[in-house]
Amino acid sequence: MMATRAHPQNTDSSPLSEDTAALRFCSDFVWGVAASAAQTESRNGRGPSNWDALCNDRGAMLDGSTNALCTQFEDLYPRDLELLAQAGVQAFRFSIAWPRVQPDGPGPANAAGLAVYDRMVDAMLEKGITPWPTLFYWDVPAWAGDFRQREICQRLADYAEIVARKLGDRVQQWIVLNEPNSVALRGYAAQVHAPAFNSAEAAYAAIHHQNLAQGLAFQALRATLPGGHRIGTTVNLQPVRAETNSAQDEQAARMVDALWNRAFVDPLYGKGYPRLAAGLIAPYVAEGDMELIAVKPDFLGMNYYSRIYVRQAADHVLGIAQGQAPRHLANTDYFHVEPDGLTEMLLRLHDEYDAPQLYITETGFAMPDPQPRDGVVDDLGRIAHLAGYLKAAQAAHAQGVHLKGLFYWSATDNWEWAQGFAKRFGLIQVDRATLARTPKRSLGYFADCIRHNAALDAPQT
Ligand code: IFM
């Protein structure tokens, strides 16, 4: 077991211009990076998962890839940690693969699987990087079923307890779920993600059963972990806009806000399901569920990339489809660029949920990066977007939001689910053929921001 080394934390006192000093974050701000097991680890040594099944069914993802190897993080993480530690990164939000811990069925863990995370956590601590594991990041073991059924809730909580028993002596920051809204709506209604269902009822069940699984997992973690821990969760929160100002599109936008944002955050804080969604979800709610779900987390994680634009669409299972974003917005390879939406959502969370401690647990940019030159990938475009988002985060901090940290998505390029390897978000490039890691210039910019604890201007050249 490793002792935690103190961070080189936010102590830089080098002179900043008056303007830049105004762009500082709070003194205990956490600068981190994020990743997930299902997007970085290979299939070796773990049991089959829901995403393996989707790859097998479809033959491959859009770019012809599968998740068989990803970036082989479970073996190659020392190189990633080395580069991140050199940049001064203070925290790593990674995830534990449930199919590695319980590959074949319920009951005791697979010792070799759990040992992988034991080593990973020790390696992070040794480098002065605080581990922030996410327990459920979309990979469900094949034996555990799916979120249409209530049985999966206790299974997920049992798995969470196993991990807490093993790592709780060194891990203090825990994230229970990642983006349950993406899972429910993209996986159960839109057929984009595993398990690729196309049913409104399946999506409503998946909303409630993930919330309930989370409530049970919080209960198990709180009973198991030694003192000093903090337990939070993460939702992909996005302000919603109607594509047009027609009454139908405006109604679609209210519905998406209810199903995408509020159905996951309101019940956490004891507000129950939002009015527009409550009747749809009610068939899955049993007595006592809402009390279990109202865990009031120690912090709330928000993943933010952009706003959502929607329109009414009678031919879609939920009666709603993705709308056109305004044409003036800049685009990355995947999402459009809307830093002001980040400020908007942070202010809303602060106002509506009694000023919780907030972390931006993901934000990042998929860009068509050039080949490395002289050992570096020159990604000025990513830096410009990141600078804009950091300033937007700082604007919320300046208005009193308790913003306590930011995790860039992602540490390295990785496997972007249904998009395969085509979307590259990393601060570190991964060569697909050799898996060699090369730092990008954005890692250097991020390092400068960490050193100054501020949202710095992007370099011009
Ligand atoms: O890669 C994903 C991640 O798995 C969940 N949040 C959004 C990221 C970028 O699309």
TrEMBL record:
Signal peptide: none
GO biological process, one term: carbohydrate catabolic process
GO CC annotation: cytosol
Molecular function (Gene Ontology), one example: beta-glucosidase activity
InterPro entries registered for this protein in UniProt: GH, Glyco_hydro_1
Top-level taxon of the source organism: Bacteria
Classification via Pfam families: Glyco_hydro_1 (PF00232)
This protein's UniProt keywords: Glycosidase, Hydrolase
Family statement drawn from the similarity comment of this UniProt entry: Belongs to the glycosyl hydrolase 1 family.
PANTHER family to which the protein is assigned, alphabetical: GLYCOSYL HYDROLASE (PTHR10353), LP05116P (PTHR10353:SF36)
Protein name from the UniProt record: Glycoside hydrolase
Organism listed in the record: Pseudomonas chlororaphis
